[in-house]
Design goal:
Order of helices and strands: EHEEEEEEEEEEHEE
Structural class: mainly beta
Largest sheet: 6 strands, antiparallel
Radius of gyration: 17 Å
Strand content: 35-45%
Length: 196
């Protein structure tokens, strides 16, 4: 007979329309938090200096499940519409600290791309549209990119609780590819800032 104490269920709320939670606080990334992430640094600086307020690029809600093995972390991510130069608004992107852990994203609203890249240089991207789930394999850094001109990209995500996040590698090297607007349509091109 097990002597492990029973654990309570976790109940959280979030809107299927907005991705927002009424009970959890989001982590917000504004354009100043993303200053080094875009290829066009002059356009980034113009946006930072020209804005009346610090533009909100994205926010996400971690629903508070313990960060340990056997748990499933989950939440929602909202990437707002906008561009820096011709590059679409996006999340910073990350590897997992436990590199071999995977993640799944389910698109609730909007449209965009999931950019993925492993340390060996394989790059993949998949379209995100409502009702579509993208499974990000272990070993792949990943970033959500909003390609809609006027609608937020809202996803639900889940990953192993012990996976952790490595943002530093992407902050220092970037992704090999970026997504830019070419005549009103997304185009995946080489990142001129990518560092080997």
């Amino acid at each position: 007979m097990s002597t492990t104490a029973p654990r309570p269920a976790v109940v959280t709320d979030f809107s299927l329309t907005t991705g927002l939670s009424q009970t959890k606080e989001p982590l917000r990334r504004r354009i100043t938090d993303m200053a080094g992430m875009y290829a066009d640094q002059e356009a980034t600086q113009r946006l930072i200096e020209g804005g009346v307020e610090d533009v909100l690029v994205y926010e996400f809600f971690n629903m508070g499940v313990p960060e340990s093995s056997g748990e499933v972390a989950y939440g929602t991510s909202i990437v707002y519409p906008g561009k820096v130069g011709d590059e679409y608004f996006m999340t910073k992107g990350h590897f997992h600290s436990v590199l071999d852990t995977a993640e799944i994203y389910y698109c609730l609203r909007g449209r965009g791309l999931m950019m993925m890249e492993n340390p060996e240089g394989d790059v993949q991207w998949e379209e995100l549209t409502p009702g579509k789930a993208v499974y990000v394999p272990g070993r792949y850094a990943h970033r959500s990119i909003n390609t809609s001109p006027d609608e937020p990209l809202i996803t639900f995500f889940a990953f192993p609780g012990h996976a952790g996040h490595d943002y530093g590698t992407i902050e220092s090297k970037g992704f090999r590819k970026i997504v830019v607007d070419r005549d009103g349509a997304p185009d995946v091109v080489d990142n001129p800032k990518w560092a080997q």
